[in-house]
Every structure is written in structure tokens, then in C-alpha cells.
């Protein structure tokens, strides 16, 4: 009985810590290529969906089956979003990691050809309009959350390149962009960005209370199961 109590809950803790320790990151060029692929995939998906919505709005003449059509549309859009956005990003961060530069150049070329093709169509010039700023900000925030979720879930597996993980002392990986990206994403929708000067403390506390609850829940759960937690310190010179 005493042996069972003395046995650690996570016997592989040391091995897991070593698996994500002593990392030096990747090159800035590779980080730039990855940072190009993600928004490029999102942009291509937005453009294709916008064209589909435009065609559907032209063809739609009846409202008899509007509810059924909306349900089918949203489900099909969800599947298409997964196949055209989530799956490519997941592949780029795992089995296609060695093809990062080729994928980035190919996507940039596809976007350039698409822009030139659209500009060459003179009959669509009257329908062209600039995308809304809110939609662009939402796309950026979705990209940040998506890359963060994929990286956090994949970093514990060998298929995820070690150079993409957080650098412990020196260097930079794609996961090192997470904190700065979230700061920018939150700053774009902050009260100052929305020209809201007044702030109610009750509303502020109510909005951050779920985050505080989740933070303490994570702390308790990781401590309870003896989950490996690494702290990275940046030396000050």
C-alpha cells in the first residue's frame, strides 16, 4: 500500500520534460514562411466563400426551404473550412514541415494569379469592394487561435518538429509568436481601438471571471496529476 502511495502519478514526467527542453528554435525565414502560409490559406478560403455567397444570392429566389438550406449550408461550410483551412495548417505543421518554403511560395503565387485574374475581368469591377475591417480582424484572431491550438496539442508528439516548439534560452520558434500574437489580437478589439472610453468595473470583472476560473482550474488540475510544466527564463544582459 505504501509503495502505491509513493509511486508518482506521472512516471514519464522527466522524459516529457526532456522532450520539450533544450530547444533552440528555427530560422526567422522559416517562421516568416509559416506566418505567410496561415493567412494565405485563410484568404483563399474567404475569397472562395465570398464568390459562392455571391452566386447563391443571385440564384436564390424562394424562401420555402430557407431553414433547411441554411442548415445544409452551415454544415457544408464547416466541412469545407476544415478541409481548406484546418487540415492544410495541420499538415504544414506536421508531415509537410520540410515543404514549408515550397508551400509558402505556391500559395503566394496562387493568390497573385487570383488577383490578376480578378482584375482582368472588367465586368466584375462594379461588384468589387474592399473587405470589411471587422472580417479581417476576425480572420486574424481565428488564425492565431487555430495555430495556437494545433501547436499546443501537437508539441507533445514526435511528428511535430522540435524546431517549432518554444526555445528555452536563445532562438525563436513558431510557438514563441503566441504571446505577441495574442497581444496584438486583443489590442485590435480593445476598448481603445473601438473608441470606448468608459469602463464599468462590474462589466470588466464579469468578462474576465471565466479566464480567472479557467486559470485556477488549470493550475489545480496540472498540479493534481503532476503534469510537466516548464518555466522559461530569459537572461537579462
Automatic annotation (TrEMBL):
Location(s), subcellular: Membrane
UniProt-recorded Gene Ontology molecular function terms: glucosaminyl-phosphatidylinositol O-acyltransferase activity
GO cellular component: endoplasmic reticulum; membrane
Biological process per Gene Ontology, one example term: GPI anchor biosynthetic process
Name of the featured protein: GPI-anchored wall transfer protein 1
Broad class of where this protein is predominantly found: membrane
Organism: Aegilops tauschii subsp. strangulata (Goatgrass)
Taxonomic lineage from the root: Eukaryota, Viridiplantae, Streptophyta, Embryophyta, Tracheophyta
InterPro entries listed in its UniProt record: PIGW/GWT1
One Pfam family in the UniProt entry: GWT1
Keyword Transmembrane helix: yes
Highest taxon listed in the record's lineage: Eukaryota
Key words of the record: Membrane, Transmembrane, Transmembrane helix
Membrane topology, as annotated: Multi-pass membrane protein
Amino acid at each position: 500500500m505504501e509503495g502505491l502511495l509513493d509511486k508518482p502519478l506521472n512516471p514519464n514526467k522527466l522524459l516529457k520534460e526532456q522532450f520539450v527542453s533544450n530547444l533552440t528554435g528555427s530560422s526567422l525565414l522559416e517562421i516568416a514562411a509559416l506566418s505567410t502560409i496561415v493567412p494565405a490559406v485563410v484568404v483563399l478560403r474567404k475569397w472562395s466563400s465570398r464568390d459562392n455567397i455571391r452566386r447563391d444570392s443571385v440564384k436564390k429566389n424562394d424562401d420555402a426551404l430557407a431553414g433547411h438550406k441554411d442548415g445544409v449550408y452551415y454544415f457544408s461550410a464547416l466541412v469545407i473550412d476544415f478541409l481548406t483551412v484546418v487540415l492544410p495548417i495541420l499538415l504544414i505543421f506536421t508531415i509537410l514541415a520540410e515543404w514549408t518554403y515550397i508551400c509558402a511560395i505556391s500559395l503566394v503565387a496562387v493568390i497573385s494569379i487570383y488577383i490578376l485574374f480578378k482584375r482582368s475581368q472588367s465586368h466584375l469591377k462594379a461588384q468589387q469592394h474592399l473587405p470589411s475591417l471587422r472580417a479581417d480582424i476576425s480572420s486574424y484572431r481565428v488564425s492565431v487561435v487555430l495555430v495556437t491550438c494545433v501547436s499546443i496539442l501537437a508539441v507533445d508528439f514526435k511528428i511535430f518538429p522540435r524546431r517549432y516548439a518554444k526555445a528555452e534560452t536563445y532562438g525563436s520558434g513558431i510557438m514563441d509568436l503566441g504571446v505577441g500574437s495574442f497581444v496584438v489580437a486583443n489590442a485590435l478589439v480593445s476598448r481603445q481601438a473601438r473608441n470606448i472610453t468608459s469602463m464599468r468595473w462590474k462589466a470588466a470583472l464579469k468578462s474576465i471571471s471565466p479566464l480567472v476560473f479557467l486559470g485556477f482550474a488549470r493550475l489545480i488540475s496540472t498540479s493534481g496529476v503532476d503534469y510537466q510544466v516548464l518555466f522559461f527564463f530569459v537572461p537579462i544582459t
